[in-house]
Design goal:
five-stranded mixed sheet; four-stranded antiparallel sheet; alpha+beta; disordered C terminus
Length: 466
């Protein structure tokens, strides 16, 4: 078999130099049959090793039976079922060739988006702990949103992956930060928002009530990706990988706010100014067209953030995202409404703010307002004073006209009526002498408290009159 170089030289000598086959054979020292085959071939010569049998050939029918019943069975499990004792590599290669015959093929199409049509959303978890307070660090989620037509991307770090926090992050990317002008937001909204099966958005295959209310207020559509189909929102998935390779390396973050500032600046100056090969232009050139085709934001903001309605307990704290926040103790026993956004935790009662705290992004913390502590101390002192006064009133017994009733021990009444509960049957009964105090009490009972007919004041079981 000749080499590719010899094949090329034979064709050159025959076509360019005009030599005969015999002359070419003499010059190159090869046979005329070899020259004839080289000139008759359509392509360069290739060495092909003859196919040999494989150890897998003997067990292929059993592999096919298993794949016909269980198309997704891993190759390691197949090896266990058929008792495979040889190299696992050659079995995996054969299973990889056979599996599409039974599982089917799911091709991923390339989709062309129109301006303002869609934006893909996803959560990215940077593998870098972010300081949330002194000595406390957490790995926090980042909400990323990528427009389909222009590939414009925005991202913001949020406190948690709960539904209220995710929706608050989406609203911040669309409407901007309410007090920070460096976060202008998109100012408009695409006609469809694409999410995967995130549990707080549509984990059961349909939008959660909070997510449905959010898109309903915006007047757009929420599209949920099919289960286990990451290609459905491949745009934002690739941006997440881009964050890890181009934004994250070499950066240090001091807080979630610092992270948001750095990623916002990087997106504005670097990521969103790139030339994208798939669209044939830069993101900056397409973004104005894309944004102009989106719909305007509603005049009333949708309900976002973590929300709860609870009856305030005696300890006057409410729990949001594993943290406790103090509330005005005067609201104890009443229902209060709690709203926790990315920055603030606000508690209201019938529209009146009764607590306002900065949002703590850590966990297991107690946030107390000193004014609430002072109010609790005052209310506690008032309560103790009221209890003491009530106790004193209950200890003083009075008649209907208000004058005090004397308290007397039960043995005095035994002496008054000549009763002896400890009489010795062998000794004669000798009544105890009646004292002057008993005679005075008899006279008072005879006259009566209001001058009416005489009556008897009966002792109570506690040894006092009633």
């Amino acid at each position: 078999m000749i080499t590719v170089e010899d094949w090329a030289e034979i064709r050159r000598l025959y076509r360019s130099e005009g030599l005969s086959k015999a002359a070419i054979a003499r010059r190159l020292g090869i046979s005329r049959n070899t020259v004839a085959k080289a000139l008759a071939s359509d392509g360069p010569p290739r060495y092909e090793r003859p196919a040999k049998g494989s150890l897998v050939d003997a067990v292929e029918p059993r592999v096919r039976l298993l794949l016909a019943e269980y198309p997704t069975m891993p190759a390691t499990v197949i090896a266990e079922r058929i008792g495979w004792e040889h190299s696992l590599t050659i079995l995996k290669d054969r299973v990889r060739d056979l599996r599409p015959l039974y599982q089917g093929i799911d091709p991923a199409d390339r989709v062309e988006y129109t301006p303002g049509e869609v934006a893909q959303c996803d959560l990215w978890f940077p593998p870098v702990p972010i300081p949330v307070s002194k000595g406390v660090e957490r790995i926090l989620p980042v909400l990323a949103m990528t427009s389909g037509y222009s590939r414009h991307t925005s991202a913001v770090m949020i406190p948690s992956r709960q539904g209220g926090d995710i929706l608050a992050g989406m609203w911040r990317l669309l409407a901007g930060h309410p007090t920070d002008p460096t976060w202008p937001g998109w100012g408009r909204c695409p006609r469809a928002l694409v999410w995967d099966r995130e549990s707080a958005i549509g984990g059961k295959g349909k939008p959660t009530p909070a997510a449905a209310a959010f898109v309903g207020t915006l007047g757009v559509r929420l599209m949920l990706a099919p289960a286990r189909d990451p290609e459905f929102k491949g745009l934002v998935e690739r941006r997440n990988g881009f964050f890890e390779t181009s934004f994250l390396p070499g950066r240090v973050f001091t807080s979630p706010a610092d992270f948001n500032t750095q990623i916002s600046e990087w997106l504005t100056t670097k990521a969103n100014t790139r030339f994208v090969r798939s669209i044939g232009t830069t993101i900056t050139d397409r973004w104005p067209i894309d944004r102009a085709a989106m719909i305007t934001l509603p005049p009333v903001a949708p309900q976002v953030g973590l929300r709860a309605r609870v009856r305030l307990a005696r300890d006057y704290y409410v729990r949001i995202d594993a943290n406790d926040y103090s509330v005005d103790p005067s609201m104890i026993g009443r229902f209060v409404d709690v709203v926790a956004g990315p920055d603030r935790v606000t508690v209201t009662h019938e529209g009146t703010v009764v607590a306002d705290h900065p949002r703590y992004w850590g966990s297991a913390a107690t946030i107390t307002d000193p004014n609430h502590q002072a109010t609790a101390k005052r209310l506690r002192a008032d309560y103790q004073a009221t209890r003491a006064a009530t106790a004193r009133r209950h200890q003083l017994r009075t008649h209907a006209d208000g004058h005090a009733v004397a308290l007397r021990a039960l043995p005095d009444y035994d002496a008054l009526f000549g009763i002896d509960f400890h009489t010795n049957p062998t000794a004669p009964h000798t009544p105890e002498p009646v004292t002057d105090s008993v005679r005075e009490h008899e006279a008072e009972a005879a006259d009566g408290p209001d001058g009416s007919a005489p009556g008897i004041i009966r002792p109570t079981s506690q040894g006092a009159t009633s």
